[in-house]
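Deviation from plan, reported transparently: uracil complex.
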Amino acid sequence: MSISRARLDRFISEKCQINRKNVRLLLAQKRVTVDGVIAADVAQAIDKFSVISVDNQVVQQNKALYIMMHKPVGVVCATKDLQHKTVIDLLDAGLSTEEKASLHIVGRLDLNTSGLVLLTNDSRWSEQLTSPNNKVTKHYRVTLKNPLSQAYIKAFAEGMYFAYENITTLPATLTIISPHQAEVILMEGKYHQIKRMFGRFSNPVIGLHRTSIGEYVLSDSLQPGESQPITLDGQTLKVNV
Ligand code: URA
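Because the crystal trials were delayed, the predicted structure below was used instead.
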């Protein structure tokens, strides 16, 4: 999913149903603004968060949304599901139906996994967090049926070969917290990755909870099912092309 960037003249031509020649005229007459600044260049790049006005009438204004949720067990990371409640169903009443419909999930969790889920309508931000090139770390607290041993640490650090995808997992950090509890740090998110990695030791995962994605840490004040908007630092939030 990539944020759609467009040329200003194409956008106005489609939105206002006028030809490109007339768009040029509008610009020459200083009747178009982008983010409050009079537009001069028909080829100016814009995106879905650029605020665009023609003759002081706003023709596009989309708010970028960034939300942190504490996903409970039993809720599905999908926008629609016939059987289970979805993370979208749990969202605050403060959001409009259109705003909820515009959201996508940044890195899904399994039905029986709890913890941090991020939601946004800003694909550029979610791509930064999920791109394999960026190797963004995700922290998980894992509870196991059987006791852990030092052998797990080495096996996770070395990576494991998954024949189904023909991949070897990237080095992962496993820290033993107690005989049945570990913290695992991954730089990727393969299908059921943590459960499959412990599966190599025939050790079922009985509890899995994500505590962070990159710099975003699940807030202690968020109870399971609760969510809150997050503010990003100016640099991350800036989406002007
Ligand atoms: N690994 C899993 O097995 N499940 C998750 O939900 C996340 C990581």
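The first helix runs from residue 8 to 16. We consider this an acceptable substitute for the interim report.
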